[in-house]
Structures are given as C-alpha cells and as structure tokens.
Task: inverse folding
C-alpha cells in the first residue's frame, strides 16, 4: 500500500459511483488491547461484502484522512485513513495504520464480492 | 516428556502454536511421534502487515497460509489441517458443529495427547471458543478413554484462578527450531523479533525464560 494521494483515491472513488459495489469496513484495536492495558476499552466493528450503491463519495482531511460514501438512505464512513492501493482486481483498498504500523481501520470497495 | 501415540494440536490462528507450543511440538516430532496441527482460521484479521508493510487486508490470508505451512515444516509437522474458518468469527459459529468437528478429529486420529487453549483463560475470543469446543469434545469421551488434555493459558487471572501450570517443559534443546517457527510467521512476528534480538544476544534471563519454558495446565473436568 502507498500513502494516500488524494487525487488518485478520489478518482477511484468516483469510478464506483452509481454502481452496485461490495464494501468491506472494519475498525479494530486488536483483540489484545484490553489484555495489554486494562484501562483500555477495546471496541471494533466489521462488515464484509455489504452491497451498496453510492451517489457520491469523498476523501478529505489533511491526513490521516476521512472517507464518506453517501448511500440512498444513509452513509458509510471511515476515519484514520493513511494508505491506499488499487489492487490487481481493480478494487480500492483504503487502510489506516496506527503509529506502530498496525492496521486500525479499513474501507474497501469492489465490484465483485471479497473472498 | 512422555512418548505419545499421537499428538493433536488445535489452535485458531497461524502463529498461536509458535510462541507457546512449538518447542513442545518439535520435541514430540524428535521422539518420532506423529503430530497433527488443526488450525481453524488463516488469521485473516491480523493487524500486523509486516515491517515495512508488505501485506494488506486482502493479501494477508494467502501470506499467512504460506507462513503457516513454513512454520509447520520448521517444526516437522507433516499433518497440517486448515479448517477454513474466518478469524474473529469462531465464537459466533454453531457450538455443536464445532464440537462435532473436534470429535471427528479425535476419532480419526486417536491421539493420546490433545493441546489447545484453556477456555476462560486465553484472552482472545477465538482462543476461548476453540478451547471450549475441544473440551466439549473430550468431555464426551468416557473418562477412562480420554486423551490427556494440556491447555495453554495466559490471561491475567489464570494463575490466581487455576493455579500454577502443572507442566513446564524446558525446550532449550530445540530453541532454534522454535525461533524458526516464530520467524516463519514473518508478517506477524518481524517487529517483535527485532525488539527481541538484542535481548537474546545478551542472554537476558527474562527473554530466555519466555523462550525456553513452555507451560501447560492439565484440564480439570468438573
């Protein structure tokens, strides 16, 4: 993955506009967060292959970045995005890596279901 | 260490075996005992992507699958079963299905020793669900016919609640194999090994104890 280049990510987001796409969204502190630090409240959320169609999408901020997808009856968004990749299947992979390089958040968009 | 007929190791994540059990596994292999490692998931949800990162969320499963095979080879395991579950979802699966899966492995392999996590004392929800499924499967077997069940525990309250481990193996004779197994899980362990390298070189007692002692609790059926 490479550090976010706003124009490239925005272009990729626009390419999926008005198409039926599969979304992977996750946020995590890791399963050991509360074990390693008892005062830490561990939380996370995960959805894989949610089928949505969005009418607009934007990546914004000064880094780490925020990305929002406007869907017919609501929104999908992620914050803390630092890296991106358009993989060999044409999927847009966005990720946020924490200060230790560990994945903290991911938002991915694909025209076919993720495995 | 007793010579076993067959050892069955059941953990949910590639690398679960490396830290706490790979020395024990290598020792059994050295005694000529067949070892089967059943690994439930591919650790798809790992947060370490390598340092510098060489994996992403979508490439991680294939990378960790290869790492798992490399680690198995390092330990001398020639029966590696990848059970096809998804990381962090084991606890949401049907419990009877998981129990039956463990029962079928035990029936097929007839192990004299089963190694897994101690349910209630192993921190990660996948560890807990895996250990619990193995315990349910072993519990179904009449007490006289049960294989030994050695469990790994590391929650903060484990010693307080289940006492000190009743089995501690000094695996220093196969420490190199253990380090190779840990190293094989490169995406997950590179950072940690880098931090450990100096301590190992200086023979830091705490690090050596962590590496050379593998601790198990014999499961207590109520």
Result:
């Amino acid at each position: 993955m490479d550090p976010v280049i706003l124009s490239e990510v925005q272009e990729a987001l626009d390419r999926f506009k008005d198409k039926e796409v599969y979304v992977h969204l996750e946020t995590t502190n890791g399963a050991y967060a509360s074990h390693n630090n008892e005062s830490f409240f561990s939380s996370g959320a995960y959805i894989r292959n949610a089928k949505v169609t969005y009418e607009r999408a934007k990546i914004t901020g000064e880094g780490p970045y925020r990305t929002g997808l406007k869907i017919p009856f609501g929104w999908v968004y992620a914050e803390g995005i630092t890296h991106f990749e358009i993989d060999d299947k044409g999927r847009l992979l966005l990720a946020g890596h924490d200060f230790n390089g560990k994945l903290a958040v991911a938002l991915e968009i694909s025209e076919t279901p993720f495995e | 260490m007793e010579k076993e007929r067959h050892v069955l190791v059941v953990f949910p994540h590639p690398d679960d075996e490396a830290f706490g059990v790979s020395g024990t596994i290598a020792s059994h292999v050295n005694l000529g005992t067949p070892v089967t490692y059943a690994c439930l998931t591919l650790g798809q949800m790992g947060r370490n992507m390598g340092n510098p990162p060489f994996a992403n969320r979508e490439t991680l499963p294939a990378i960790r699958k290869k790492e798992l095979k490399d680690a198995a080879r390092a330990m001398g395991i020639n029966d590696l079963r990848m059970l096809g579950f998804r990381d962090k979802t084991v606890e949401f699966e049907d419990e009877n299905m998981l129990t039956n899966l463990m029962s079928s492995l035990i029936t097929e392999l007839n192990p004299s020793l089963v190694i897994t996590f101690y349910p209630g004392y192993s921190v990660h929800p996948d560890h807990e669900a895996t250990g619990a499924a193995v315990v349910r499967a072993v519990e179904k077997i009449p007490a006289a016919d049960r294989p030994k069940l050695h469990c790994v525990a590391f929650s903060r309250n484990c010693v307080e609640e289940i006492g000190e481990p009743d089995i501690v193996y000094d695996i220093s004779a196969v420490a190199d194999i253990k380090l190779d197994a840990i190293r094989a899980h490169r995406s997950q362990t590179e950072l940690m090994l880098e931090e450990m390298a100096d301590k190992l070189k200086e023979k830091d007692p705490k690090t050596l104890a962590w590496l050379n002692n593998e601790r198990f609790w014999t499961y207590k059926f109520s």
Summary: Chain A touches chain B at residues 1, 24, 26, 28, 30-32, 35, 38, 46, 83, 85, 87, 91, 93, 95, 97, 100-104, 106, 108, 114-115 (CB under 8 Å). Chain A has a mean pLDDT of 95. Helices of chain A lie at 6-15, 33-36.
